[in-house]
UniProtKB/TrEMBL annotation:
Keywords: Hydrolase, Metal-binding, Zinc. This is dCMP deaminase family protein. It holds the Pfam family dCMP_cyt_deam_1. Its cofactor is Zn(2+). PANTHER family: DEOXYCYTIDYLATE DEAMINASE, DEOXYCYTIDYLATE DEAMINASE-RELATED. It comes from Xylanibacter muris. CDD domains: deoxycytidylate_deaminase. Residues 9-129 form the CMP/dCMP-type deaminase domain. Gene3D superfamilies: Cytidine Deaminase, domain 2. PROSITE patterns: CYT_DCMP_DEAMINASES_1, CYT_DCMP_DEAMINASES_2. Belongs to the cytidine and deoxycytidylate deaminase family.
């Protein structure tokens, strides 16, 4: 196995873990999971949901997501702000492509690679990441069941 193959296999594995992590989300419309990995160690994790101390309900009566719901990436990055670790040079694994608000956080957090598995309707987040010279990789674990 070349280093490239090894990285690919690891990327798929972490992405599958992010997908499993998304199952923690109590949001009904969409469940998103994120992992921050540095030096082959998971240093943070997140899923979309309300801030600490808020009721675990993401949607209002009309099935519209509350504006105070945090995205998985934002939860993973802000969790690091309360830890002794940091995301400088890390890789973010996320089930869905980041939105523009999360893309800004990813850039400022010093994350260097983003691996995701599902495209969001808007591409502006991905474009911003690319502009910041962050490596953006799309992988679909379902295409690689034998891996
Ligand atoms: Zn977002």
């Amino acid at each position: 196995m070349t280093n490239k193959d090894k990285q690919y296999a690891l990327d798929l594995r972490y992405l599958r873990m992010a997908r499993i992590w998304a199952e923690n989300s109590y949001c009904k419309r969409r469940q998103v999971g994120a992992l921050v990995v540095k030096g082959n160690t998971i240093i943070s994790d997140g899923y979309n949901g309300t801030p600490s101390g808020f009721k675990n309900i993401c949607e209002d009566d009309n099935n519209i997501t509350h504006p105070y719901v945090l995205h998985a990436e934002a939860n993973a990055i802000t969790k690091l702000a309360r830890s002794s670790n940091n995301s400088d040079g890390a890789t973010l694994y996320v089930t869905d492509s980041p939105c523009i608000e999360c893309a800004k956080l990813i850039i400022q957090a010093g994350i260097k690679r983003v691996v995701y598995s599902r495209n969001y309707r808007l591409e502006d987040g991905l474009n911003l990441l690319r502009k910041a010279e962050i490596e953006v990789i799309y992988l679909n674990p379902d295409d690689n069941e034998s891996e």
